[in-house]
Amino acid sequence: GGGFAEAAEWAVRHAQYARSAQLFQDAGDPEQAAEALRHLGENEEAARILGNLHRDRGEAKRAAEYFEQAGDDLAAGDLYRSVEAYGKAGDCFMRQREFLAAAEMYTLVDDRVNAATCYEKAEHFEEAAECRALLGQHDNEADLLGRAGRFLAAGQIHHREGMDDEAITVLPKVEPEPED
Length: 180
Hints:
Elements (H helix, E strand, L loop, with lengths): L1 H12 L3 H10 L3 H10 L3 H14 L3 H10 L3 H10 L3 H10 L3 H10 L3 H10 L3 H10 L3 H10 L3 H10 L3 H7 L10
């Protein structure tokens, strides 16, 4: 990469950053390539290059931070998950509308509010109901159980919480048990 590196240095001295970025990449110097891209205002591409560099070096957390800067939230989320930074992983997955993955990450850090929201968006109503129950939000829990088709459980919660009108509304949806 010596010839490429020398040409890249020349391009930097003459403010030809696009050319220098490519030459630094060809020379195997991604850090310098990223710096040249930053001079061009191409911060996301620079961050992506650095994310790949740090991932290749086994520096997952640092790579995740760069991928997040690059807007590659799926790669960042996977890397954050690999270093057990579950809250950050959940944030990345949520931005990408990967709600089930986000919910699972939030559950691991006991962020029940975000977990419930994401489970609901992923249409995993029973898991969302469980989170709402742990938050003491029993009216939401019952509504979510109803959406999951668990009408008897929903009606029982409504009744227990003194919401008999809601219980009366949901209980007729309960399927009778088959006779033997």
